[in-house]
Amino acid sequence: MEKENVIVVNNLYKSFGDNDILNGIGFTLQSGENLGVVGKSGIGKSVLIKCIVRLIEPDWGEVNVLGTNVLECNEIELNEIRKKVGYLFQGGALYDSMSVRENLLFPIRRTQFVDKKKDTEELIEESLRSVGLLDAIDKMPSELSGGMKKRIALARTLILRPEIILYDEPTTGLDAVTSGEISELILKIREEYNTAAIIITHDMKCAKIATDSIKIMKDGGFIVQGTYDELSHSEEKEIRDYFI
Ligand SMILES: Nc1ncnc2c1ncn2[C@@H]1O[C@H](COP(=O)(O)OP(=O)(O)O)[C@@H](O)[C@H]1O
Ligand SMILES: [Mg+2]
């Protein structure tokens, strides 16, 4: 299948007061690509992906998602884009007072999502099966481990059949084995749902397993892009240091 650009970000700026976070940053994400983003804590990784779906309003620049000019589109178009872009938040909180089934129902109700071929129950079961947790359908979040909660949060994202998934620190707070499993799951989801993804992470094992290439963010822009192997063997110590 021919590759196309599913996200194009150009010359994007965002400041909070005199705190300049994005300073003309740009990149493209292609269909089927898993792009890793690393960078020091507080550098603006989460701000960048929030700007892509306008959870934060950028000050200036261009964001094009699946052919839509996101910064100039109206509310209806923006909602369409948000349905197509799944967002796995840092922390990935579930609604504690709702069962797993109700957590997954929530985005369907909120967006009045309709699938022509599958009813709601089928969509819920299929998403849970994809993350290996169909058994948990009637459990409450308090009965789940940290890794299971991440999986359910991912299932909740998958239920709207996104074309792009934004993963914000998907393995943070998990033990090494569980982190590895989640990283493998990110790859499996791409195969199963034909998604492209941005994966923000400081977990280098996750970056190694789940991404095709990695960009390093610094001073409001990207300083370098390469595969895990290329960057971890870089001649520049500053770049290698991200991989220790
Ligand atoms: N809504 C906001 N209002 C003001 N400052 C913010 C807001 N969101 C993020 N920031 C600031 O932007 C910077 C980058 O944050 P963030 O993107 O969350 O970093 P990270 O790279 O760790 O994800 C931080 O200094 C943070 O305090
Ligand atoms: Mg962050």
What does this entry show, briefly?
The protein has 244 residues and is of the alpha/beta class. Helix content is 36%, strand content 26%. The chain is built from nine helices and ten strands.
How would you explain this protein's 3D organization?
It contains nine helices and ten strands. Helix 4 crosses helix 5, helix 5 runs parallel beside helix 6 (176-193) and helix 6 (176-193) runs parallel beside helix 7 (204-210). The chain has one domain (5-243): Rossmann fold, CATH 3.40.50.300. A hairpin with a 2-residue loop joins strand 4 (60-65) and strand 5 (68-69). It has helices spanning 45-52, 75-84, 100-111, 120-130, 146-158, 176-193, 204-210, 228-232, 237-240; strands at 5-16, 19-30, 34-38, 60-65, 68-69, 85-88, 164-168, 196-200, 213-218, 221-226. Helices cover 36% and strands 26% of the residues. The strands form two sheets. The protein has a six-stranded mixed sheet, sandwiched between helices. The chain has a four-stranded antiparallel sheet with strand order 2-1-4-5, with helices on one face. It has 244 residues and is of the alpha/beta class. The structure holds adenosine-5'-diphosphate and magnesium ion. The site of magnesium ion has 4 residues, from helix 1.
